[in-house]
Amino acid sequence: MPSNSSEAESFLPAMAAIAREAGALLMDYFHQHLKIEYKGEADLVTAADRAAEKLIRERITQNWPDHDVLGEEQGLSDRGSDYRWYVDPLDGTTNFAHGFPVFCVSLALEHRTSKLDGERVAGVIYDPTRDELFSVAKRKGAHFNGQAIHVSKIRSLQESLVATGFPSHKRHKNPNIYFYHQITLRSHGVRRAGSAALDLCNVACGRFDGFWEFNLNPWDTAAGVLLVEEAGGKVTRFDGSPFELNSRETLATNGLIHAELMREFAEIFAGRGLETPPDPREYKR
Ligand code: 2AM
Ligand code: CA
C-alpha cells in the first residue's frame, strides 16, 4: 500500500472512534474508582489499563487484521506488517489512580517504508474527561475537535508557560528536578500534570509553549510528537539532534523558544549549580 497523506488521513475516523470507545471505558472505571475509594486501587488501575488495551487491540485487529501493535501493557504483536500501532491505553495512570482527572488514550500509526525506516503517519489522542479529541495525519495538519490547530507565537522563555513530567519509578535517578528548578525561575511557570501525551497536545494547540521530559516510552510520544510537528512546532532531543521514539529525551516547543531552552539545558548539563535555598527571612517577605 502506498503511504501518502490522503491514505494517512483515511485512518483517522476509525482511529478516533477507537480512542473514544476506549476513553468511555476508562471513564466507567474512573467513576467506579471514586466510589470504591480505598479498596483495590492498584488492581482497579491495572484493570482499566488492561481492559482499554484489550479493547483497542480488538478494534485494530477487526479493522486491520495484519497490522503490528505495540502497546504499553501487552508489548509487541509482530505480524510482519509494514504498519505498526503505538498504543497507550491510559496515559496518566497515577492521576487516574488518585481520581485526578488528567489522563488520555493515545494511538499512533507508523508506516515502515524499509527495514530501517518508518514514519508516523497518523495519530489521535483523546481526553475523555473533557471530551477533547486531537488528531493528526502526516502533511495534513493537526486538529482539535475538528478545528485546525497551531502552536503558540510566544517568542521568549520569559513569557512562556511550559510543561514537564517525572517518572513514577526510579525518580532518584532522574535529573529533571534541576531542570524544573531552573526553568521555573526563567518562565511564567512549569506545569507538571502527569500525562506526557496531553502535554504534547497542549503544545500543539498553543496552551503550552514548550514541553520536555526524560525517558518517555514510544507509546507516550508517538502520536503527540507528530501532532506538535504538524501544528508547526519543533521536536528534538535536548541538544537539537533529531527526535526518535527511543531517544529518551523529548523537547517539544512552538519552535520559537526551542534554541533558548536548548541553551538553558546545555548550561544545566554543564553543571551550573542550583541556587542555594533562600533563608526563611527571604521567602516570607
Ligand atoms: P503513564 O501514565 O502511561 O505511566 C508522566 O509525566 C509521564 O511519564 C506519563 O506520560 C507516564 O505515562 C510516563 N511515565 C510514568 N512512569 C514512567 C517511567 N517509569 N518511565 C517512563 N515514563 C513514565
Ligand atoms: Ca504512558
Question: Your description of this structure?
Answer:
The chain is an alpha+beta fold. The chain has two domains: 5-147, Fructose-1,6-Bisphosphatase, subunit A, domain 1 (Fructose-1,6-Bisphosphatase, Chain A, domain 1, 2-Layer Sandwich); 157-270, D-Maltodextrin-Binding Protein, domain 2 (3-Layer(aba) Sandwich). The protein is built from nine helices and 13 strands. It has helices at residues 5-10, 12-36, 41-63, 93-98, 176-185, 196-204, 218-230, 258-269, 280-283, and strands at 68-71, 75-77, 83-91, 104-112, 118-127, 132-137, 142-144, 147-148, 161-164, 189-191, 210-214, 234-236, 249-253. An eight-stranded mixed beta sheet has the order 2-1-3-4-5-6-7-8, sandwiched between helices. Strands 10-9-11-13-12 form a five-stranded mixed beta sheet, with helices on both faces. Strand 1 (68-71) and strand 2 (75-77) form a beta hairpin. Helix 6 packs parallel to helix 7 (218-230). The mean pLDDT is 91. The chain binds adenosine-2'-monophosphate (2AM) and calcium ion (CA).
